[in-house]
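$ ./design --mode recover --in tokens.txt
reading tokens...
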């Protein structure tokens, strides 16, 4: 499992979510839609048992040990879309 976030994407989350240094953003998998597919979700939440944690601009971005089932075979790279509108997730399954 690998998680990366560009500085530009981190700044987008900080601005859009009103984050300040010391805040934390959790990435996790959730069931989405009527067919039981999974998607990425985020929440402003303090880590309790992080599997992976990176800090950009003083804000922690992390995945909890509990969510390893969703991320264990993936490399997730978070970067801004080419048009700069919002972040996009590049997921590489290992």
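writing sequence...
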């Amino acid at each position: 499992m690998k998680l990366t976030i560009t500085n530009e994407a981190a700044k987008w989350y900080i601005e859009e979510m009103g984050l300040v240094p010391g805040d934390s953003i959790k990435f996790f998998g959730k069931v989405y839609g009527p067919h039981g597919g999974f998607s990425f979700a985020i929440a402003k939440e303090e880590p309790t048992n992080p599997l992976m944690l990176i800090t950009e601009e003083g804000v922690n971005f992390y995945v909890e040990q509990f969510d390893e089932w969703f991320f264990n075979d993936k490399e997730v790279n978070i970067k801004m879309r080419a048009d700069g509108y919002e972040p996009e997730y590049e997921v590489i399954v290992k």
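exit 0
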